[in-house]
Specification:
Number of strands: 0
Largest sheet: none
Number of domains: 1
Radius of gyration: 19 Å
Shape: globular
Structural class: mainly alpha
Number of helices: 13
Order of helices and strands: HHHHHHHHHHHHH
Strand content: under 5%
Helix content: over 70%
Length: 298
């Protein structure tokens, strides 16, 4: 589709990056599965947590789009999906307004969750919004720091927070299951940074991949992926999750296929691995929920 053919709706779809949104739900799905297994499932808080996570992801995408442009961190040789500000499809002001509207809507969802679960959710929500905005500047250029923030918010906060808004307490298994989910989401960042190594070097953007190099970054991807799958039998052995959780391993062939792209390709072809890695996180969480349902009913 040519840019002149894009409607305003299509442009905003480009801006929010729909392919990134499924991964935003992975932690919520996992936390809800655990709450269901422990007998704490609550539909409305679970749904609100999912909507809130998706809105925060959209807000983060918009912030990333406009602030990277304003600080000169984008180039015309960009290998990733179209950035609407850099491409001139939306003005910086339009994207910033969209960002703040999105964060406002996420705050409304947060207010509902606060009435249910208290001030702990307020802290998570405010720091999540701050991190989404700060990520483009102070965080994204610091190799390793961005990975930690992604792990904490898309892994720990998503899984444990979702469990908490339903159970009004935390659980050791929620903390432990936040680890594989967090690592899978971090791998999205790993692929993104691997693809952009040359472009990031050109604008002095020092990501973890820039510091480590191509070979080590590929190894990092495999290590995080492997840990995510091997944690399941470990948690089964200590009776934290049911043996049916191994249904997740049905996704290993797909994960291996995506890993093959990461190991072989460079530059633009890694966009397929980027989308695939997000799908791994989503499928992993959905299969985990399926395993929980099998454990409960069979």
């Amino acid at each position: 589709m040519q840019e002149k053919e894009l409607t305003k709706f299509n442009v905003w779809l480009l801006a929010i990056r729909p392919k990134t949104l499924p991964a935003a739900g992975a932690g919520v799905i996992t936390g809800t599965a655990l709450a269901f297994y422990d007998g704490y499932f609550q539909l409305l808080p679970a749904f609100a947590a999912l909507i809130g996570a998706i809105l925060l992801q959209i807000g983060s995408n918009l912030a990333n789009d406009v602030f990277d442009y304003l600080r000169g961190a984008e180039s015309k040789e960009r290998l990733g999906p179209v950035r609407v500000t850099q491409a001139g499809l939306l003005t910086p002001k339009e994207v910033q307004v969209g960002m703040w509207i999105t964060f406002f809507l996420s705050a409304l969802v947060g207010i509902y969750l606060i009435t249910i679960a208290g001030s702990a959710i307020l802290l998570i929500g405010l720091t999540a919004i701050f991190s989404a905005i700060a990520y483009t500047g102070a965080i994204s250029d610091k190799g390793g720091v961005a990975d930690i923030f992604v792990f904490l918010y898309f892994g720990v906060a998503a899984v444990v927070g979702t469990y908490y808004v339903q159970a009004l307490r935390t659980s050791p298994v929620a903390w432990w299951m936040s680890v594989p989910i967090g690592l899978l989401i971090v791998n999205i960042l790993v692929v993104n940074n691997l693809r952009d190594i040359k472009a990031d070097k050109a604008v002095n953007k020092i990501t973890t991949a820039v510091r480590m190099g191509v070979s080590a970054t590929r190894k990092e991807y495999l290590i995080l992926l492997t840990i995510s799958y091997l944690m399941l039998p470990a948690l089964i052995l200590v009776n934290l999750i049911p043996v049916w959780s191994l249904v997740v391993w049905l996704s290993i062939p797909f994960a291996w296929k995506v890993a093959g792209i990461v190991l072989k390709e460079e530059g633009r072809p890694l966009n397929a691995a980027l989308a695939g890695t997000g799908k791994i996180a989503l499928v992993y969480s959905l299969l985990f929920f399926a395993g929980i349902l099998l454990a409960v009913f069979f």
